[in-house]
Amino acid sequence: MSERVFQVVDADADDPQWYKDAIIYQVHVRSFKDDDADGIGDFKGLTAQLDYIQDLGVTAIWVLPFYPSPLRDDGYDIADYNRINPSYGTMRDVRRFIREAHARGLKVISELVANHTSDQHAWFQRARRAKPGSVYRDFYVWSDTADKYSETRIIFKDFETSNWTWDPVADAYYFHRFYHHQPDLNFDNPRVHDAIIKAMDFWFDAGIDGLRLDAIPYLYEREGTNCENLPETHEFLKKLRAHVDEKYENRMLLAEANQWPEDSVEYFGQGKGDECHMAFHFPVMPRLYMAVRMEDHYPIIDIMEQTPEIPETSQWAMFLRNHDELTLEMVTDEERDYMYRTYAHDQDARINLGIRRRLSPLMNNNRRRIELMNGLLFSMPGTPVIYYGDEIGMGDNIYLGDRNGVRTPMQWTADRNAGFSDANRQKLYSPIIVDPEYHYETVNVETQQRNPQSLLWWMKRMINLRKRYKAFGRGTLEFLPVDNRKILAFIREYENEKILVIANLSRFSQAAELDLSDYQQMVPVEMFGEPASRRSASFPISRPLACTASTGSRSNRRKSPATMSQRCREGSPGAQPDRSGRLGRRCSSRAESAGCSRHSNRTSRYAAGSAAGAHHPGNGYRSDHTGSAREPDDPDRDAPYLLHRGEERTYLPATGLRHRRARRTGKGLDPACRRCRSDGQLEKRVLYDGIWEQDFIRTA
Questions:
Q1: Strand runs (DSSP E) across 363-422, as ranges?
Q2: Which of the following is catalytic: 214, 221, 396, 526?
Q3: Choosing from 74, 138, 256, 371, which is the catalytic residue?
Q4: Catalytic residue at 266?
Q5: Sheet with 172-175: strands ordered across
Q6: Is 397 helix (H, G, I), strand (E, B) or coil?
Q7: pLDDT in tens, 253-288
Q8: Would you list the DSSP string of 529-573?
Q9: Which of 505, 507, 650, 659 is the most buried (most CB within 10 A)?
Q10: Is 51 a known active-site residue?
């Protein structure tokens, strides 16, 4: 087993673009696992849980700030860049954590907060006492008046009224983009450049594989501008990237640039790819929620069409929340009001320009919608980021203040303190979630590990599926025109992989028509439960087309499921396919289908059902551990498909309990059955792979 693990590590080490295929798991050290029973998570506890993270299937761990800090901003107020917060352990613990993570094939990503420090940092304490104009004083931005840079926006409007704060020791104002206790560094001072690069080298030398550059658009200040995305910032990033490429191999820089796409793309290097390797795509995040709530694909398509092309070596990072907040900066005022009305009824859930909630409460704990959101996250272009606890559907506590309600301890078991710590409950850094709907005795890792149908297992299967196809991380994106705006359909393509993703954004079953004439020599094969033999033999050599159907809520469980019924009518080779909705005679052989106009100009009709995603190992399609298929056990679930060239395969919906009973007894059409009375005709469909056959009633 250890030999296999190290083979994986060696393969990853040789890929300089490992971040393109990565799946990132984001953790707080103090929130994950407490090893020494002091009520605060630490690196020893995090290291002890690496097997769980590896089992989840992710490929990288993003560790939030763990440096010495007053913790007035969750560690982003750093007091020393080159040391460890004593509550979390020692540098030896960190090095052991990195070694153990690498041994399991996991990359480690940390934080480089370059924009500001804590006011407790030695640099600031020295600067406030230094003479004006001295080298030490110029480490920060000072002014005798609070009127400079008046066009700069205030980011934390709930807490700050100005970007300037008076310091009685320095007898001057200092500039800050965030909280008043986080003074901004002065990047016009070359010594600041050297200090930041030295801090970066320290952690790369320690074995860190990537660094997230926090608040990177705000490094410089210039009068007459909003002090964002200035040319000087990009010049510094080019300098930083050149240093990394010269000194290290296979390292990654991730830009946190909360900007519109045309501005964010500049952090890759103006088309040259000589700045950051990755950047977060902030505007996509709120529009995923808008699309699901509005049941309309327009917000997603609109923002993705506004996204410029990026350099070949670059990659977007996608997330469902900016770790502890659904950020609403990159939306219009009308869109922000809509998001507040729909996702933050309680005023306590709102903070600054965002919503401080976890994914499950945002989705009202609706399992289908949670799966839908994660399905969209995994299928969109870019590298997905999962926030700790979201894989089990953890809740939050918005009454803890600030964003601490989304930073509560990880829920491992139903035991005391949710298995997070053996300390007295009163010593915990934060209360455990005891909300009845998300109580730790119900929502925890141990319980869900024992249930193969749990959200945790669904996430494992989704992660494993994504890792098998590079098209998700590296492929192109092409939206398909759909008349029904409740259906989102797009194709991801990379080399010989072609993946079709269909998402039903509605709560109810929807019908839509897709033009797949460009793929007329392919037929669908379901992705989640394809036989192991097909998976190992066909995927590397065939040209597959895949379709994932992710949909809305449980409220329509007894409606028609997702179907892929390709119908053929008799006629001349040049005849157009019938669009009346009535069924014609199906081609009975491949030779006959080869000359059929319906096959030569294929427009497939989909009816997307009401259940989200796929349940192990596939939706409406039961499979044993060897991958062999049996008769569908739940026809009301949507099914994702994979198309294989040269194979006929059709999945059909059940036609209602009464009709199925009539069919089994051989009575044919039942006058008392609603489906039998409808304007349609009975038709037998046989799967060519010999799995099963089923009668089908088509309603007009």
A1: 383-387
A2: 214
A3: 256
A4: no
A5: 142-143, 172-175, 164-167
A6: coil
A7: 999 999 999 999 999 997 788 999 999 999 999 999
A8: T--HHHHHHTTTTS--EEEEEE---GGGTTS---EEE-------T
A9: 505
A10: no
